[in-house]
Design goal:
Strand content: under 5%
Order of helices and strands: HHHHHHHHH
Number of strands: 0
Structural class: mainly alpha
Radius of gyration: 24 Å
Length: 187
C-alpha cells in the first residue's frame, strides 16, 4: 500500500491521533531552519507511515504511533543535524569551524525585541527623519546583496550574526554619507 493510498484511507480518528501527537512532539524536535510547522508536517508523514507498521496486538494505536513518531523524529533530527568530528589538518579545520559557527548561529537566534538592538546606529538619526523614511532611504542606498537581510531584520526575522553585522556596517556607511551630504552631525 502506498502513502497516497494510506492518506485516502485514514479515518478521522486515526488522523486526530496523528495530529495530536505531531502537535505535542514537534516543539521538542525543532532545529536550525526547521520550525514547528516543518517538524509537525514531518511528524504527520511519519504517523501515516506508522499506520502501515501497526498491528493491533502491539497495543493501542495512540501509544504505538506516539512511540513510532518520537523515534522517527529523533532519527530525523540526528540524520539532518549531524555534526562531524573536528578534523586534524589545518585547512579542513578552518572549514569545519566556519560550518560549526554557522550551525551555532542558527541555534542561538538573535534577540528581536526591538530594532534598536539590530540597528543601534539609527538611534541618533530618528529625530531628524521619520523612522519609515529612514528605513526607505537606507533600503534605496543599500547594495542589492544586503537588501534581503536588511528587510528580514526590519521584519524582525532572525538571520545569522555574521550577515547581520555586514548589514549593520553597510548602514553605518550610508548614515555617514547622509551626514556628509546634509552637513548635519548627530550626537
Amino acid at each position: 500500500m502506498s502513502e497516497l493510498q494510506i492518506a485516502t484511507e485514514v479515518t478521522k480518528e486515526q488522523w486526530r491521533i496523528i495530529d495530536k501527537i505531531a502537535r505535542r512532539e514537534s516543539p521538542k524536535y525543532t532545529f536550525g531552519y526547521l520550525d514547528i510547522d516543518d517538524i509537525e508536517q514531518q511528524a504527520r508523514i511519519f504517523g501515516l507511515n506508522g499506520l502501515l507498521a501497526y498491528k493491533e496486538e502491539s497495543g493501542p494505536l495512540e501509544n504505538f504511533l506516539s512511540v513510532h513518531i518520537k523515534n522517527r523524529l529523533k532519527n530525523f533530527k540526528r540524520d539532518n543535524f549531524y555534526r562531524a568530528d573536528q578534523p586534524k589538518n589545518k585547512k579542513s579545520l578552518e572549514k569545519w569551524e566556519k560550518r560549526t559557527q554557522t550551525k551555532i548561529n542558527l541555534l542561538q537566534p538573535i534577540n528581536i525585541d526591538g530594532m534598536d538592538e539590530h540597528f543601534p546606529m539609527l538611534e541618533n538619526h530618528i529625530d531628524n527623519l521619520e523612522f519609515d523614511e529612514l528605513i526607505s532611504f537606507i533600503n534605496k542606498k543599500l547594495p542589492a546583496s544586503l537588501r534581503t537581510d536588511f528587510l528580514r531584520l526590519n521584519a524582525y526575522v532572525q538571520i545569522p550574526v555574521a550577515r547581520r553585522e555586514k548589514v549593520q556596517a553597510a548602514i553605518e556607511l550610508i548614515l555617514e554619507e547622509m551626514e556628509n551630504e546634509t552637513g548635519e552631525v548627530n550626537n
